[in-house]
Amino acid sequence: MRDETLEWIQKTEGDFASATREIRARKNRNEDSACFHCQQCIEKYLKAVLVEKNLQFPKTHDLGILLDLLSKTSPGMEIFRDGMNILTDYAVVFRYPGESATKEQSRESYLKCVEMRESIRNKLKLP
Question: How far is CA 127 from CA 3, 18, 31, 41, in A?
């Protein structure tokens, strides 16, 4: 595995750990942060796969764009498109005043994140 891919994986696992802490928090749980870190986890995993396949990608938080780039070499990822469309919004929408994530949204984003993370880790042959 390429060194740059491993760097992306380290970063994404940090986001996954942050999302997991927020989801498990009993006090002062931050639903916005949980949604944001779920989105970041999947974004960085998609970028890790692209790096490993030596495919160029733009600077974007749009998971659909990243999935489009991957779909040519990883057609099995298409099943996650709906979840990725939902998570894409969480890169920005809850980070600023005006909107806040609900407990249901953070739970849903976490479940989608866990499912997609597992699939991507399998593609990368990670334990």
Answer: 17, 20, 28, 17
Residue 124 is encoded by which pair of tokens? 């990368």
* Coil vs helix vs strand at 36: helix
Q: Tell me the C-alpha distance between 5 and 28, whole Å.
A: 34
CATH second-level architecture of 3-123? Answer: Up-down Bundle (1.20)
Q: In angstroms, rounded to a whole number, what is the distance separating the alpha carbons of residues 23 and 91?
A: 17
- E strand or H helix at 93: none
Q: Tens digit of pLDDT for each residue in 78-110?
A: 899 999 999 999 999 999 999 999 999 999 999
Segment 64-77 mean pLDDT: 89
Q: Note the pTM of the prediction, 2 decimals.
A: 0.95
CA distances 126 to 106, 117, 119, Å, are 26, 11, 10
pLDDT at 113: 97
d(CA 35, CA 19): 7
Q: Which residue has the tokens 């998570």?
A: 87
